[in-house]
Amino acid sequence: MNMMRTVTYGILFFLLIVLVSDAQEIIDNPVSDFLNFLRAPDDSELLRLDADINSDGQKEVFLSRTDARNAKAGFIWTVYLPVEGGYKRWRKPICFRTDALFIGECEQFDGPALVTYWPGGCGTGALIAFQIRDNKIEETVLHVDPGRREEGRKIYDSIFEENEPPKIEKRPISALAHLIDVPATGNSSKAAERVQASAPANEKTSHNARGSSVLIPIAAVALIIVGSGLYLLRRK
């Protein structure tokens, strides 16, 4: 009896965490959210990349700062995924360089991706692909060692040297002071219009919003089942 009750309470706690984490507010303005979420020195600059890395017709927003670097891996980026009515901030930052960056499809990875290069030592290095699948950002590593292997050099050149890199917008943090301490959440009509306008005509809601709408009912049903079990236990 005690063991079953402990397990039941554990399941309830887990489901509560799932519901709370999924209930992240919709963000209207990624820049305002970013500046308030990660405070930056005034002499830093904001880096912004708008790109549709999963070819669903909606652009993700990638934000970083010139003072936020992870050594050779490049800048540390916060990702904002488009959802119905605005954006949601991805829970983990990613790292990529602006001097070795490609967005699209290449034969080394299955499907569209944001591809960057992380150099190692003595000619070693790896391609890193970030892809959005099932409402998640997945990371794939492919070691090519362009400084050691001719085939690796050809792969590197075919991705980064033969393609124009995406444009990175750069703005002084001091020029964005009016966005600091300004709420970035809410369901403003402008945010909704922006996301809907970029969506395909036959798909009004992004896959990210659909993933959330599926998860919440499942968790609610599970809570009802567990609650019923607790009720029966108390009656015994």
How far apart, in Å, are the first and last alpha carbons?
Answer: 10 Å
> What spatial form do the alpha-carbon principal axes imply?
globular
Helices and strands: which structural class?
Answer: alpha+beta
Taken in chain order, the helices and strands follow as HHEEEEEEEEEHEHH
User: How many alpha or pi helices?
Assistant: 5
Give a short account of the largest sheet: 6 strands, antiparallel
Q: In terms of per-residue confidence, which ranges show pLDDT below 50 for 5 or more consecutive residues?
A: 9-22, 187-215
Total beta strands: 10
Work out the count of structural domains. Answer: 1
Radius of gyration: 22 Å
Please give the share of residues in helix.
Answer: 25-40%
Name the beta content range.
25-35%
The average pLDDT value, as a whole number, equals 78
Topology:
Layout: H1 2-22, H2 30-37, E1 45-51, E2 60-65, E3 75-83, E4 86-89, E5 94-96, E6 101-104, E7 113-119, E8 125-133, E9 136-143, H3 150-161, E10 169-172, H4 189-198, H5 207-235
Antiparallel strand pairs: 1-2, 1-10, 2-3, 3-4, 3-5, 6-7, 7-8, 8-9
